């Protein structure tokens, strides 16, 4: 029998290390290629069969309707116009730091867009010098496919010197936001985002003042309404204030309210039913989500609304509320009152899909696949769809669906017992599973992705497509349209 020499053993061990390292590196690059495909038609991929579905193969339907042809029909509603110009800009932050950022009209966040329910918004986007192009996605707004602002799906990225006009009717009052959906993980972090508020047609009487607070991470720096220090808001003692909060960062924020009791009156722009008073309660707002609060200023002293990285909104004057650490955590699955006229127990479901959000080696995945390799969900107009969304790990995954809202039915198998919860972005944490209900009532090609945009850039992004809808545009390095990179 041959004795292995010391040298021979080292040689074999060395070879094993090289093979192992080699396969890790190969796997890494094999998976990373998904982020930059050469050319993909997001309307024509193999798709997922439903509960009673089957694989239809690819969709090359001669009679298909193009997404670009689905527009907001002309009407005689009032028009509100905005001009947004994307450009590189040197911004001096209020901590003295100078940052090269990307802005709309020189600002980040960009100009606040305000419109009244029922009005037609017309927004002219121009790009001065963002080389890879920009788009604007209107997060949470239900609009026609051609106006959704996804590069390579609903339009071409708008290159320097070019422009694109968005037009849609803001049907539903609430708190929304907008951001670029070309290379979104890069462009949002560099500053291409802003607030979008749809005011109700009938003014609400229960508050005297309203404020909007947008939290973002600009090149890694936490900002509230563009400030590293937070904001100071004048408010009279005893007055009632509505706070519209937007999380435009990638991480889940834990928000505390100190100095006053409050109510959460809306989530993702949708009013909650009979919301109760919360005291010493923190709430979590996931990336992409919006929470609207109503609070009454005390007769004496300030109210402080703070996130967990130290950003604060200070309302009112006088003494600080005494600091506390005994908060409990808000649970939206049993908050407020159910709607007796819209019970969810006997909803009819035409199609069901299960989406497992997780991590597969180096990429974020849905059902073990990433980005354009994930079979799209395909529905027909009018279908009632149930999605089971499972967070199998890899962090919080706030799951966002374009062009629709959905109603949350259950968390971890337990049906919701409070107010109906209608969202466009569902906060999910590791180990949780949710069932949500979507009415397929907006034919188009819609992205569905994690709103931690780093996760979507790593592959946690797929399509919710309607049968018979096609697109002229392509995602990939050939066209330069890389919506989630
Ligand atoms: Cu995620």
UniProtKB/TrEMBL annotation:
The molecular function terms of the Gene Ontology recorded here are: copper ion binding; oxidoreductase activity
Q: What is this protein called?
A: Multicopper oxidase family protein
Q: Where is the Plastocyanin-like domain?
A: 91-201, 221-300, 364-466
Per the UniProt entry, what species is this protein from, by scientific name? Paenibacillus soyae
What are the protein's UniProt keywords? Copper, Membrane, Metal-binding, Oxidoreductase, Transmembrane, Transmembrane helix
- A Pfam match is Cu-oxidase_2
* Transmembrane stretches, start-end: 12-30
At the top level of its lineage, which domain of life is listed? Bacteria
